[in-house]
Amino acid sequence: MDKIAFYDTKTYDRKWFTALSENTGVEICFLEMRLNADTAPLAAGCRIVCAFVNDDLSQKTLTVLKNNGVSAVVMRCAGYNNVDVKAAENLGIRVYRVPSYSPTSVAEHAMALLLSLARKTHRAFVRTRERNFSLEGLEGIDLKGRTCGVVGTGKVGYELCNMCRGFGMKVVAYDLYPRWESGIEYTDLDELFKRSDVISLHCPLTPETYHMVDSHAIELMKPGVYIINTSRGPLIDSSALLEGIKSGKIGAAGLDVYEEEAEVFYEDVSLEVMEDDVLNLLLSQPNVLVTSHQAFLTDEALEAIARTTLQNVRCFLLGEETDRELTKTAVNV
Ligand code: NAD
Questions:
Q1: Which residue, 27, 166, 219, 257, is most buried by CB atoms nearer than 10 A?
Q2: Is the pTM of this model over 0.85?
Q3: Is residue 108 annotated as part of the catalytic site, yes or no?
Q4: What CATH code is assigned to 103-290?
Q5: Where are the domains of the chain?
Q6: In the CATH scheme, what is the code of domain 2-101+298-318?
Q7: Residue 328's pLDDT is what?
């Protein structure tokens, strides 16, 4: 029976993958640790590795996997900025991903962050639990009539555009490949920064998009702008974001992803000293709402992720082609 070494397992992964892998002829070995060069030897005996957003799939890790008999990596996520795809191709490791599972889940989470910040429900929740029923400082804003700048109108960004329209917001967007037929108004990035009351990021992390929101970009923005990031942390220079929050230029920030999230996200580090000063300071601000890369975490998305990942396993085992494979030029070694 073929085995899958499943890294960084959480309860919700186990639930869906166990249920959907029954009678598929593959055995899943659930491991709690993250994948990196040190933990890669644990995959020995497995031809397939299943990994996630904060696992390390650098050339070094992939080489150790290869030396331990791994021939395929199935990513149970859409983004693959943590995978050295070229190195995998050279090593003959096939890499697959789940390009789409539930864009709605991610877009709704972006909207949830925005609504919480706009109406300060995250503050109200903490207050009323303490029997503090004062409204002082909880003044919010209406979204209707405001302009949302959406960067990246792919699957998630496009859903968010429609949600914003449903709220009566104006939408402007920037994308390398605009959906002209959608009726969305496209502008260049600087113009989007200048015109938006809310900016929501939905483009992938690439060398071009790294620190897309930096101090220069923040300078262009409207005073009081809300920034929402459910895409990838390094799209934002977090030190510049913190400065923008401290100066009052940025009205609020909703972050589901963070530049240095790999150190802490998905783990309970509440009893440890936090070394990341920028994250500490961001977390301590009343107008910053951080979630731990959970935009994907819905029943609908988890089921779709497990289903597609297992389809990718099947494609690998049967030698079937799929456009969900990233390593087009990989050779079976
Ligand atoms: P997608 O590929 O459907 O859309 C990405 C869009 O970004 C495309 O339209 C593309 O043309 C555009 N784009 C690429 N480079 C750009 C650039 N330099 N400037 C502007 N636009 C650019 O991806 P998606 O499914 O909509 O997902 C968007 C991002 O959300 C993913 O890259 C992933 O990092 C992130 N994501 C996060 C979570 C989460 O749980 N927080 C879950 C899924 C996806």
A1: 257
A2: yes
A3: no
A4: 3.40.50.720
A5: 2-101+298-318, 103-290
A6: 3.40.50.720
A7: 79
